[in-house]
Amino acid sequence: MSCTITTSSIKSPITPTWCPGCGNFMILNALQKAFVELELEEANTAIFYGIGCSGNMADFNRAYGFHSLHGRALPNAIGAKLANHNLKIIIVAGDGDFYGEGLNHFISLARGNHDVTIIVHNNSRYSLTTGQSSPTTKKGIKTKSTPMGVIEKPLNPITTALTAEASFVSRGYSTKPSQLIQLIKAGILHPGFALIDVIQLCPSFNKEENHPFFAERIYDLAETDHNSSDKMAAIIKAQETKKIPLGIFYQDKKSVPYHAQLPQIEKQSLIDQWSAEINIKTAMTKFK
Fold first, then answer.
1. Taking CA atoms, which of 19, 226, 240, 284 is between 20 and 30 Å from 246?
2. Domain boundaries, given as residue ranges, for the chain
């Protein structure tokens, strides 16, 4: 009998090693609380991690998981989902990992509406390697890898997800944990591709975009007349620059995930089919 995840069962004995004030602490706490509130089963929950500061979360969750290479958490997660579509799959990655090395996988997963929940720790830096620019670093910002300033315009993850046909697109903020917990829960319960782009503070390598910077810019979409079922309205909201909307930009409530459209696994998961075949072969061997 599978056990549900509890506050004590999900916590690893390993103490997090992130920098003081890092937003990762709040994201980890929100993720664990979301698991507990949803009463997810330990045996049917798996977390796939990318590389970087966010990927170190693999040490701090006591849960089934896979620590992959840069950008490769996504295809590994899809392999697991297609093998056993009964799993709740959560992918944890940084902005460099997901929007840089993993960008092609991001677009592919969104287009296919694969049933996974992606939590992106977006601090606009490659912080584990001490603060190089990432795909979401603003134009003109000077970093260790761009001493003369970033030349490119930053990638807009919300717009990218929407135009790639993602069926659930949202944004959270690491210092608004109550809202973040609800976004993670909504993403996990959504039947299809769910993106939760989380603005994450990085006091070590992104000192300009600190809490006061965001506090005067963020606002909650739920407190406006925004219609999250209107994709064009979501795209318009995603283009805002002076203010930063938080919450669910878009959700297709009629979403049908990729695996549900495959007749090969409609009645039984691949892992169950394999187990049944092994049992039949074992029985036949005994009969002989």
1. 19
2. 18-287
